[in-house]
Structures are given as C-alpha cells and as structure tokens.
Structures
1.
Amino acid sequence: MAIFPIRKFGDPVLRLETKPVIEIDDVVRTLVADMIETMYDAPGVGLAANQIGITKRIAVFDAHDELGARVMINPEILEIAGEIEFEEGCLSVPGHYWEITRPGFARVRALDLEGKEVEYVGEGLLGRVLQHEIEHLDGRLLLDAMPKRMRKRALKELRDEELGLT
Ligand code: NI
C-alpha cells in the first residue's frame, strides 16, 4: 500500500472530468486500497481519484459510521433533497472551512469492488460527502458549490494565502 501526495487547489487535474472504470481488476483494487490509506493519513472523510492525479471515476469515503471505509466506482447521483448548512472543507484546499449550504440528503448508485451495484443513501455527513466526492469526479470543487459572493471571498482568501498575505 502507498500514501499519495494530495493535489492542491490550482492543479489542473482537479478540473478534469474522470473516466468511468471499465473493468475492476487488481490495478483498481490496489488503487482503492491506496486511496483509503491516503484518506486516513490526511486525515479526511473522503477522497476522489483525481485528488491523487488519477482520472478514474473512483472515490472512497468514511462517514464516521460503523461501516468504515467504503468505495464508490462510477457513482451517479440519483436523488438529492433538502437543505443543510454545514462547515465544509476539502483535502485539496487544506486549512480552509466554509459554511456551505447544500442538499442534506443524497442517494447514489455506484459499483463496489466486486462490481456489484450498490446504493448509498444518507444525510448529514454522509449526504454531504457523497455529493462532495462526486463533484470532484466531475472536475468540480467545493468553491463551485458556493454562491457567487461567497466564492469571490473564498478565492480572495486563497489568493492572499498564496501571496503570503495571511
Ligand atoms: Ni474535497
């Protein structure tokens, strides 16, 4: 197993739409094990493959429940509902947290490591992490989930940090 460096905001790979997995083979199984190790090492509650530079439609997450680490391969959102305001961060934008309003409930269809179709259904942390990781796989970041003015402020914050102004 291996821990990968996590790509940070500004890295173009985070803006790429990932490609569906055609075959779940040993390469994919090793990648998933490495992604879980990298997520726990960070530590974080979710990690998408493009966050370690691999443009496959795979994400892992651990929503702090009894099920532990889970994987979603080729996930699609079937349903989102409700609205919840929650402090949200991202391993690709380390050290920053924003109060982001988004649907609280999500239902997702994906494949597991055996290639079996699974559904993940949840709200709260689970609902949010499902949406956040699938956004990564679509080349989006949490800044895109913000209203325009909030995004402008967040971008300024990140720019100031990059310039060493904070
Ligand atoms: Ni993230």
2.
Amino acid sequence: MAFFRTKKQAGEAELDLSRLPKHIGIIMDGNGRWAKKRGLPRTAGHAAGAETFRTIAYHCRDLGIPYLTVYAFSTENWKRPAEEVSAIMDLLRKYLLEALEKMQKDGFRIRFLGDVTVLPEELRELCLETVSVGNQVDAKYQINVCLNYGGRDEIIRAAKAWARDVAEGRVQAEDLDEAAFSRYLDSRGVPDPDLIIRPSGELRLSNFLPWQSAYAEFYFTDVLWPDFDGKVLNEAIIDYQKRSRRFGGI
Ligand code: IPE
Ligand code: IPE
Ligand code: MG
C-alpha cells in the first residue's frame, strides 16, 4: 500500500528511512472492544484484527524492516471461553495456510515463539510445516508469531533446557552469560526488539518478550488493533526516531 502526501503540513515529521527499527514487536490488542463498539461478537473483532495483521506485515516488509514479532495468543489466553479460543485457532490456521503459499513469492519467513507442541494437532502440524518451508526461503524479512507464548514460560523452558545440558555435560554452569542464555530462548538468532507497540490503550506488557524488551522503546496508542493501519505505524516509528537511546551510556 502506498501513502500519498500531497503537501507536507507545517511541523509534520517525516519517516527517516535510513534509521528504521530493525525489529518491531506488536501486542495486537483491542479486537474484543472493537467488536463490542459495533455490536458484533468478539470473534468478528479477531477476524478484523487478522486482516490488520496482514496489512501491517506487508507494510513492515515494504519499509524494509527485517523483523516483526506479533503477539497472537498468550499462555494466559486459554482462560477465555472455548468458542473464542477455537475461533482464534481457526483464524490462525487460515492465515498460516495463506502465508505458507505466499512466503516464497513474497520473500518472507515465519517463525513461532511459544510452546506450539500443545496446540491442536492440525495447527501444530501447520506450524511445523510453515517453519520448514520458511527455512528454505531466502528471506530478508522474518515474522515471528507468538503463539501460546508467555515470556515467563519461555524463560522457564529455556532454563530447563540449559539445566539438562549442564547435567549431561554439554555446557559448564560457569560459562552461562546473557548471550549464552539467549540461545536457549525461542527468539534465538533474532535481535532484541527496538520498538514495541501496544494499541488499545493498555499500558502493560502482558508477558510479551520480558527478556528481549529490556532496552526496547515503547509506543502506546488508544487505537484499537482492527483500526490500526500503516499511518499509525509510521507515527509510532517517527516517535521512536525522536528518542535518544543511551543503553546506560551518556
Ligand atoms: C487481542 O484482542 C487478541 C487476543 C488476545 C487473542 P482482545 O481479544 O484482547 O481484545 P480486548 O482487549 O478484549 O478488546
Ligand atoms: C495480550 O493481550 C495478548 C495478545 C494480544 C495476544 P490480552 O488482552 O490477553 O492482555 P491483558 O489481559 O489485557 O493483559
Ligand atoms: Mg485484550
């Protein structure tokens, strides 16, 4: 999608394409409230949110941002009514099937963060296939889908895997450092997010990337996820570009 600006408004900032974040994380929130406002079932909000995901994924790719991580379903979201969970799983299946067909042609790869081993059989198989097809794509752009993801769960699973390696003599406990531990996380190989965006007005992480976000910049907006678009994303990036990231230095 292209954005046409007839005339630059006074004071309006422009996106600096030479200083884009390398990795954006998005907590795709507000689907339920979007539907409620329209007198629709919550599942209609999830369907609209899934469309927004596709739009934003291509927008990031077209800007030249190498990594996008989206929070699709948390370890806590199982608390929702079974019908809502199953509607979300159906949507995930639909969009993954579409992605599977388009990855090669459109030059992107999908990976998953979270424990996909406990997902419904068909979806689990689809995740595995998506990863294996994605591995064969020479992609400049990677989408990480957080699916049955919780940051604490990710850290606990990583700690267990590391403890097993210590017990079986593959690594030495004394050698553990931040870089070594990062390699046990689902996000291994992916640089930390530079910018984390949460729509819908909530000001919290809700267990999204707690380890990886230690030095991320945050952008919050009241826009509900189904109403989110390329313009809002650009505004978030422009805001990010105004900030001074010191990482503890001066
Ligand atoms: C985010 O939208 C989607 C998921 C958590 C799966 P919500 O469903 O949380 O929408 P709200 O927060 O109830 O509006
Ligand atoms: C976070 O949103 C999870 C996803 C967007 C997938 P929630 O709606 O589940 O978070 P809380 O309950 O408002 O913290
Ligand atoms: Mg929510």
